[in-house]
Design brief:
single chain, 656 residues, eight-stranded mixed sheet, 56% helix, globular, binds flavin-adenine dinucleotide
């Protein structure tokens, strides 16, 4: 396929405006949710003018417009797909995530407010509450008639949620809970919908019943009545933020606020009218992690949104690079197109390949989420693996967004800096995706904990230090035996020659099994190294916290290596499942580019660990360059395949 083909097909009226072949790739990208995503694209496109409008609006008006759009979107039914049908939803968790991802092509304040309202607030009521809460609230939540907050984070504690300082004490005399912001830094902070629009909040607090502390639980608390703070609630505005200024983030204090006993979201634990605390889950920490685990869909949503935002940025930058000319290079007749420069290809095309890889990895998380939440899969291990995969994909997807959007902005030169070309908002609005719904670094620690303990029965009970002790208590070989990667190790070792053995030509550099073996080896080796170092530190009598801290970069690196492997596997499996044909050929090309660029990025490590000779390493770099040249003629079709409505791209001058 060449650019000429693109032009001729466009001229002949085939898929006007889009490169030929794009529709087939869109079908691949949309997967099982093509219809839902098409509907969301159309609905978001109807609000495309908001992207321009916000540049003129005051912060207050921007919030109000976002609220209006949110309510209108709720009216389409597309924001509530994950809720049960009886409350206006479609009972389809997978569809709700797919819809959210497509929503990310538009204004990101609308997206995030929608995430707060339907994913966090509504999701918490659905997952942590029982029928009485569902009946009381869900229909209004889904319809956008009742806006609310998810009030977990406090100024004093964000990542360490178990340590929040809000206290809910049961008062048997009145059959109520009394909520109190019990420490100076225990006010709820950064809470979406709190500063202006929320009427109710799901508040996470330490439950005290009969004088006994029962750990963090969630309660439904009115925070605003007729536009004014509810009695005992103080509200402050977080003020101007780096981005997402259409969302009203705020702070909440509770001064002995009384709510009925039934306000406790009681799916996992309850207090009886007699004042007894009851729960089927005996261990407090397991109960806490079970509660948090039910909220995993927020994490899956944000990861997907980050990937979608990268798709917007790459569409603009690549289409611009296919029009913009600078300097005469191969011809004296006209200047060269940006995308015909090797370096421009290098900057954008591996990012495009990685975006596809992450998109497919996100499909896997979404599928797993759907299976677990629709009850198709019920075992504990699958649930824990989902949590780990969701955490890892969210971290890599949102870091990728930050990097890709910046590179795309620079690739558009000065024009990239103008608000009308979208990068200003994209950069500002997606930046915090790396932090909310779990800080990425903290999430990777969670992934590592799962790997090191193989999601052992004790997994959920363990904090970082317990985990160190747990690992140290095992022989290193046992740690390895317990991991899934170990099962592959012997095969990989036999198959993957060391870098010292003059292997360069013996294995095809474009062989997907070779790429996978390399990433598996890295993961396995790093995991073994971490286990050994943790064990050695403890054996030497060091404080477990100090041991962990010393090894922490290695821990995070291991988790990253693990998720990189999962992402590549998702891409390879996707390609292998495709029927033979030009789309599959193109996806193979892109997958090779992603794999080799990933190996190249860490070539120092592979050389250090004897899995890459210097010669082979250079060959990989040459191959990445060649693949960039091979992908270049398909760049347009690859971005057109994202099918982002033209009006949402704005950037008229760049796109032509
Ligand atoms: C715009 C916005 C909207 C938000 N919306 C909501 C909302 O609606 N509801 C809600 O409840 N919360 C919300 N949050 C809060 C958000 O979830 C938290 O900011 C996030 O969980 C991180 O917590 P923190 O800010 O306290 O950072 P910290 O936990 O203090 O982390 C700060 C830094 O320390 C590092 N760090 C922390 N622990 C460790 C460790 N053990 N080892 C190594 N490094 C570590 C982290 O990687 C991070 O870089 C929002 C935040 C923002 C900015």
């Amino acid at each position: 396929m060449t650019d000429n083909d693109v032009v001729s097909d466009v001229v002949s009226g085939v898929e006007p405006g889009r490169a030929p072949g794009a529709a087939a790739l869109t079908a691949l990208l949309d997967g099982d949710y093509a219809e839902v995503r098409a509907k969301v694209r159309a609905a978001v496109a109807e609000h495309a003018h908001l992207l321009t409008e916000v540049e003129e609006l005051t912060a207050e008006d921007y919030r109000e417009r976002v609220r209006q759009v949110l309510v209108e979107m709720a009216g389409t039914g597309l924001t509530g797909l994950g809720f049960p049908k009886e409350y206006g939803g479609a009972g389809d968790v997978g569809a709700s995530i797919a819809a959210f991802e497509a929503l990310a092509y538009g204004d990101l304040s609308v997206l995030v407010k929608s995430g707060v309202q339907f994913g966090l607030f509504g999701g918490a009521i659905l997952q942590l509450g029982t029928e009485r809460h569902h009946e009381a609230y869900l229909a209004d939540v889904v319809a956008g008639r009742l806006l609310g907050c998810f009030a977990m984070t406090e100024h004093g504690h964000g990542s360490n949620v178990a340590a929040v300082g809000t206290v809910a004490t049961y008062d048997p005399d009145s059959d109520e809970f009394v909520l109190r912001t019990a420490a100076e830094d225990a006010y709820k902070d950064y809470i979406g919908n709190a500063a202006a629009h929320g009427e109710l909040a799901v508040v996470f607090a330490q439950l005290v019943v009969g004088g006994e502390e029962r750990g963090v639980h969630a309660l439904v608390v009115p925070i605003r009545v007729d536009g004014e703070p509810a009695p005992g609630v103080r509200i402050a505005d977080d003020g101007l933020k780096m981005g997402l200024n259409g969302v009203d983030n705020g702070r909440l204090w509770f001064d002995d606020v009384r709510v009925p006993r039934t306000a406790l979201l009681n799916r996992f634990a309850d207090v009886t009218p007699a004042g007894d605390y009851v729960s089927d889950i005996e261990s407090p920490s397991r109960r806490f992690f079970t509660m948090l685990g039910t909220l995993v869909q927020g994490r899956v949503s944000v990861g997907g949104a980050g990937i979608a935002a990268s798709e917007v940025a790459l569409t603009i930058a690549i289409r611009y690079a296919l029009r913009r000319r600078q300097f005469e290079a191969t011809s004296t007749e006209q200047e060269e197109l940006l995308l015909d420069y090797g370096q421009h290809q290098r900057r954008l095309l591996p990012l495009l390949a990685r975006t596809y890889a992450l998109h497919f990895a996100q499909q896997v998380v979404r599928r797993d989420l759907h299976r677990v939440f629709s009850g198709e899969v019920t075992d504990e291990k699958s649930r824990r693996e989902l949590e780990s995969r969701a955490a890892g994909t969210k971290a890599l997807g949102t870091w990728h967004a930050t990097r890709a959007i910046q590179e795309c902005r620079e690739a558009c030169g000065g024009a990239g800096y103008l608000a009308e070309n979208r990068f200003a908002a994209l950069k500002a609005d997606t930046d915090v995706f790396t932090t909310f719904e779990g800080d990425n670094t903290v999430l990777l620690q969670l992934v590592a904990k799962g790997l090191l303990t193989d999601y052992a029965g004790e997994f959920e009970e363990m904090d970082q230090l317990d985990m160190v002790r747990f690992v140290a208590g095992l022989a290193v070989d046992t740690v390895l035996e317990k991991t899934a990667v170990h099962k592959l190790l012997e095969r990989v070792r036999d198959w993957l020659p060391s870098g010292d053995q003059g292997e360069p030509d013996s294995i095809g550099i474009r062989d997907a099994d070779y790429h996978l073996a390399m990433l598996r080896f890295r993961e396995e080796h790093m995991l073994a190294g971490v286990a050994r170092r943790l064990k050695r530190g403890i054996d030497q009598g060091m404080n477990p916290g100090a041991v962990f801290s010393r090894v922490q970069d290695h821990v995070i690196g291991t988790a990253r290596a693990h998720v990189e492997r999962l992402v590549l596997e998702a891409f390879v499996e996707k390609v292998r499942a495709m029927p033979a044909g030009p789309e599959r050929d193109l996806m193979e090309l892109l997958c090779d580019l992603h794999s080799l660029a990933t190996i190249e990025a860490d070539r120092a490590w592979f050389i250090e660990h004897g899995r890459l000779s210097v010669q082979r390493s250079k060959a990989i770099t040459a191959e990445v360059n060649r693949l960039c040249r091979d992908v270049r003629p398909h760049a347009r079709v690859l971005v057109d395949a994202f099918a982002i409505p033209e009006e949402l791209l704005r950037a008229e001058d760049l796109l032509g």
